[in-house]
Write a structure and sequence with these properties.
Length: 253
């Protein structure tokens, strides 16, 4: 039996809510299948979603989540890869450009910004699951988080230039080694996450820097090219997310 669009959307939102609540994938799948069976039975009798959720989908999600055990080990085991990917995103581009340096400000601020950004996305996904936001609102929120993250990182870089002295500047050879390690982390991340987006996005972000490192062009042109490819890569990334959501969530159909 084919469920109504509302019921399909609710199942997708419940999965998203439980996933961002740190529940086990196997249990989420089991809960989703049980819910689908209940909804199919209810709709076959002419009833709607409210007959299963009690008229409050948000309360139903929270109640289901409270009855499940949080998989803290599952959350912890993913952290090393997230941290490695975060570090790789921060340093690979600078290493390719030959501008990599380490200061106390960068070491303290960049991890905090990264953690705050991840937390903002998790909170947003949880809100999306229980609130019926429009696609436009969701897109604006995601763009805003990205712009705030980039803005904070830019502010740190400016403060670092004017007020902080680096305590370590690698040689050019070491920078190439660091860049190679960053690329390796992106590839491992793609295999781990079973998606090539962790390779495609860095390719747009850092690929032009790699090419321009072998070309004799002025800094302003290099800056324009880097910014252009960054925007292009980000737009493609957002389109990728929208396409994936459209495939997995009927609300985007």
């Amino acid at each position: 039996m084919r469920l109504s669009k509302e019921s399909e959307e609710f199942i997708a939102n419940l999965r998203l809510y439980l996933m961002t609540s740190g529940k086990k994938d196997s249990e989420i799948k089991e809960i989703a299948e049980e819910l689908r069976a209940h909804l199919e039975e209810a709709e076959s009798r002419g009833k709607n979603l409210d007959s299963v959720t009690g008229g409050s989908p948000e309360a139903y999600m929270k109640n289901v989540s409270s009855e499940m055990i949080t998989d803290f080990y599952g959350l912890i085991k993913f952290m090393p890869m997230f941290i490695l990917l975060l570090i790789a995103y921060f340093i690979t581009g600078s290493a390719i450009r030959g501008e990599l340096s380490f200061s106390l400000l960068k070491l303290a601020a960049f991890p905090l910004i990264g953690v705050a950004s991840i937390a903002a996305y998790i909170v947003t996904f949880r809100k999306m699951a229980v609130k019926k936001w429009s696609k436009k609102k969701e897109f604006i929120i995601f763009i805003s988080i990205q712009l705030i993250t980039v803005g904070l990182m830019s502010a740190v870089l400016l403060l670092d230039i004017f007020y902080f002295e680096p305590f370590y500047i690698p040689s050019r050879e070491v920078m190439w080694i660091i860049a190679a390690l960053g690329v390796l982390i992106f590839i491992i991340g793609a295999i781990w996450s079973k998606t090539w987006i962790t390779v495609i996005l860095p390719l747009f972000l850092f690929g032009p820097d790699f090419v321009m490192s072998f070309m004799d062009i002025d800094e302003m042109t290099a800056l324009y090219v880097s910014m252009g490819t960054f925007v292009g890569g980000f737009v493609l990334f957002m389109l990728y997310l929208l396409i994936q959501n459209k495939k997995q969530n009927p609300r985007y159909s």
